[in-house]
């Protein structure tokens, strides 16, 4: 299946902003996080098709996954 | 502090704090060791000062009867990382109820002044009445305890915050400083004056790298009292760092809360400024007076775009490993670092750039620099200017002031200079004052008279119950974006249980970044208190004391005439929903009405009898 992955903030460094990736059916968000070596301690927000999600949520063909860093304080 | 117990919960009276009360009218001083009445007193900060303010019935902020209380937290000057905080408390000249009464307020700042203040042997300094002539206050460590002297300050008048500090620095070795700028001197026309605190980096480099107790006009109160500066002179007294505290520090630096604040080269997110990158995908970065239009304007201030033309240096407070902020400097043609421009922190940056239509990093930095040097609260100033710009956009035929519009750097700069010099009370007295003068209050972005932080109100109904500024006294500002919570009951819990505890950091002397994720009631805090003072306090007891202090703040608001109808978001938010924000709408009237009912249902029961 094809998943469009949108990265934000520091996750773009040495990776990409937006890319369509191939994943086997049944893959979850954690699989993408692991493959892209996203630092877990910085990972704050995961969205599937703009809806908040958790790392164990299963992805489906055509989904857009957004991964954003933590938002704490200002 | 004199600590004669290990159990401050059962025996707070066995802990005494050193308080000096000065009557500025006649110079009389009273130095005393005051037994704590409860754990709030022991922890300090606003937990103690608000109990004192509750004893006063104050109807005007600028009055002789309104005290200015300066104190520290128990962990200020301790071995705990971020233990740098100084607190300024008083009834505020800018925050007040529609009944016309001023609200009790505190403001916190880092820098090294708080440590020097405590190491001089003092825990609390209260100023009564006002001085006839401008003075600065020298707090000096002696073998007999702290010695306090009032000194003529005419030579400091008219200087910027930075120049005041550097002038005093030439005179006093081993000292740190808390000063007001020209804004605070012109308190009659500026109610948003801040207090600037010196840093080690500032005194060493000569660059204006200060810290601020910005919120609520505490610098204006200081100006009204005719106190131009405070000097705390003492030797450094760093306690040894035990292995237990070292382990806590390790957790602080690597923990979830501060991880994103660490420099990028250390695997972090790059400081508070990185909030831009997280909020922009939701179109939730404030643009043009909190009305993002679904475009990419905010991206112009993304780090990746700023670093093309400017030098960015990660920076930390004194002995702090969190490294939460960035210094922006000119970049020389050869790529080396040029002149220092300003400190980029999320709130001042956004409210003095994107939210007023400025998208050039250099211009943004210079406006922040001006605001800092005049000694104004960047949040109140930025939001009041954005109101004026919004008014001018709506009334091009009859604009306010110099006719400044969003993005007009030169005219906005002029507004800041005039405000700082006390020549533009329309800006200097804040957005509520200006909006009421103009008869258009719907798009004035304040709550209870105090301008909100740089998080859209659409994302944070918790603003309404913040007791001392939107993001520093109610930690709910990132909840919708972070977690997507959109049901009323979850928000009731966020406001009444989880996120109010952020104020505990403004009692104990630490920065909220010490543990922004887990908050105040943790083993980390208990470990530091045990290690430095041999105090045994269960985290739950700390949380309970913090809750009591918060509730007292809420009770004080109600006593000062706030009605529950004033606990509301700016009208534009609820009446004209912004379709460009990619988040659930939790600011609609129905949601807010149900939320208010349920929040008050929780708080009302606990507020009974808090104030006699």
How does this structure look, described?
Chain A is mainly beta. Helix content of chain A is 11%, strand content 34%. Chain A has one helix at 29-36, and strands spanning 2-7, 18-22, 43-48, 51-52, 64-69. Chain A has a five-stranded mixed β-sheet, with no helix packed on it. Chain A is globular and about 40 Å long. The relative contact order of chain A is 0.32. By secondary structure, chain B is α+β, with helices and mostly antiparallel strands. Chain B has a domain at 2-233: Aldehyde ferredoxin oxidoreductase, N-terminal domain (Aldehyde Ferredoxin Oxidoreductase,  A, domain 1). The longest helix of chain B is centred in the C-terminal third of the chain and has 21 residues, at 539-559. The mean pLDDT of chain B is 96. The A-B interface holds A 6, 8-10, 12-13, 39, 41-42, 44-45, 50-52, 66, 68-74 and B 254, 256-257, 259-261, 264, 267-270, 272, 274-275, 277-281, 304, 324, 345-347, 453-455, 471, 477-478, 481-484, 512-513, 516-517, 582.
Strand order of the largest sheet of chain A: 2-1-5-3-4
Q: Low-confidence parts of chain B lasting 5 or more residues at pLDDT below 50?
A: none
Oligomeric form: heterodimer
Tell me the name of the CATH homologous superfamily of chain A.
Answer: Beta-grasp domain
Poorly predicted residue ranges of chain A = none
Task: Give the CATH topology of the domain at 2-233 in chain B.
Answer: Aldehyde Ferredoxin Oxidoreductase,  A, domain 1
Query: Roughly what is the average pLDDT of chain B, rounded to an integer?
Result: 96
User: What would you call the shape of chain B?
Assistant: globular
Given the structure, what is the number of helices of chain B? Answer: 24
């Amino acid at each position: 299946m094809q998943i469009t992955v949108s990265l934000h903030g520091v996750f773009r460094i040495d990776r990409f902003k937006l890319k369509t990736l191939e994943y086997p059916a049944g893959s979850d968000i954690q699989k993408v996080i692991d493959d892209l070596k996203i630092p877990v301690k910085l990972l704050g927000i995961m969205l599937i098709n703009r809806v908040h999600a958790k790392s164990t949520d299963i992805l489906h063909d055509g989904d857009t996954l957004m991964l954003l860093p933590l938002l704490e304080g200002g | 502090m004199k600590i004669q117990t290990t159990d401050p919960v059962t025996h707070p009276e066995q802990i005494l704090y050193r308080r000096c009360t000065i009557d500025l009218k006649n110079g009389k001083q009273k130095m005393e060791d005051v037994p704590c009445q409860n754990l709030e007193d022991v922890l300090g900060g606003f937990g103690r000062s608000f109990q004192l303010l509750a004893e006063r019935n104050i109807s005007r902020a600028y009055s002789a009867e309104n005290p200015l209380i300066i104190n520290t937290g128990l962990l200020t000057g301790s071995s705990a990382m971020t233990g740098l905080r100084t607190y300024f408390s008083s009834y505020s000249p800018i925050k007040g109820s529609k009944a016309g009464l001023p609200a009790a307020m505190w403001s916190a700042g880092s820098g090294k002044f708080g440590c020097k203040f405590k190491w001089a042997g003092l825990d609390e300094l209260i100023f009564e009445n006002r001085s006839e002539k401008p003075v600065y206050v020298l707090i000096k460590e002696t073998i007999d305890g702290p010695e306090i002297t009032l000194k003529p300050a005419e030579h400091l008048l008219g200087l910027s915050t930075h120049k005041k500090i550097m002038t005093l620095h030439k005179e006093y070795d081993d000292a740190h400083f808390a000063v007001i700028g020209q804004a605070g001197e012109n308190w009659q026309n500026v109610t948003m004056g801040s207090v600037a605190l010196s840093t080690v980096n500032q005194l060493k480099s000569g660059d204006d790298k200060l810290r601020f107790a910005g919120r609520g006009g505490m610098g204006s109160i200081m100006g009204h009292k005719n106190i131009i500066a405070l000097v705390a002179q003492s030797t450094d007294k760093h306690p040894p760092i035990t292995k237990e505290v070292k382990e806590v520090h390790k957790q602080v630096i690597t923990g979830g809360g501060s991880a994103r604040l660490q420099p990028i080269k250390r695997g972090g997110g790059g400081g508070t400024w990185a909030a831009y990158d997280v909020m922009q995908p939701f179109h939730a970065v404030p643009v043009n007076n909190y009305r993002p239009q679904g475009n990419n304007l905010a991206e112009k201030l993304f780090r990746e775009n700023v670093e093309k033309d400017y030098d960015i240096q990660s920076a930390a407070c004194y002995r702090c490993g969190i490294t939460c902020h960035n210094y922006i400097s000119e970049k020389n043609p050869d790529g080396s670092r040029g002149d220092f421009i300003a400190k980029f922190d999320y709130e001042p940056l956004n409210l003095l750039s994107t939210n007023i239509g400025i998208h050039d990093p250099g211009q943004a930095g210079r406006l922040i620099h001006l605001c800092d040097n005049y000694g104004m609260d960047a949040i109140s100033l930025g939001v009041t200017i954005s109101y004026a710009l919004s008014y001018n956009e709506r009334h091009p035929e009859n604009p306010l002031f110099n006719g400044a519009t969003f993005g007009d750097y030169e005219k906005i700069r002029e507004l800041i200079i005039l405000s700082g010099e006390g020549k533009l009370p329309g800006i200097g007295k804040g957005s509520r004052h200006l909006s009421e003068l103009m008869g258009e209050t719907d798009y004035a972005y304040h709550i209870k008279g105090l301008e909100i932080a740089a998080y859209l109100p659409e994302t944070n109904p918790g603003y309404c119950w913040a007791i001392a500024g939107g993001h520093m006294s109610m930690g709910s500002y990132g909840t919708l974006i972070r977690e997507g919570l959109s049901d009323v009951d979850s928000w009731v819990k966020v406001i009444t249980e989880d996120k109010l505890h952020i104020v505990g950091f403004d009692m104990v002397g630490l920065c909220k970044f010490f543990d922004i994720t887990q908050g105040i009631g943790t083993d980390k805090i208990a470990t530091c208190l045990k290690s430095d003072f041999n105090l045994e306090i269960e985290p739950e007891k700390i949380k309970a004391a913090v809750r009591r202090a918060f509730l007292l703040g809420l009770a004080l608001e109600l006593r000062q005439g706030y009605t529950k109808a004033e606990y509301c978001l700016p009208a534009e938010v609820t009446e004209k929903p912004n379709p460009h924000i990619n988040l659930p709408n939790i600011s609609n009237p129905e949601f807010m009405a149900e939320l208010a009912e349920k929040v008050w249902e929780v708080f009302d029961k606990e507020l009974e009898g808090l104030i006699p």
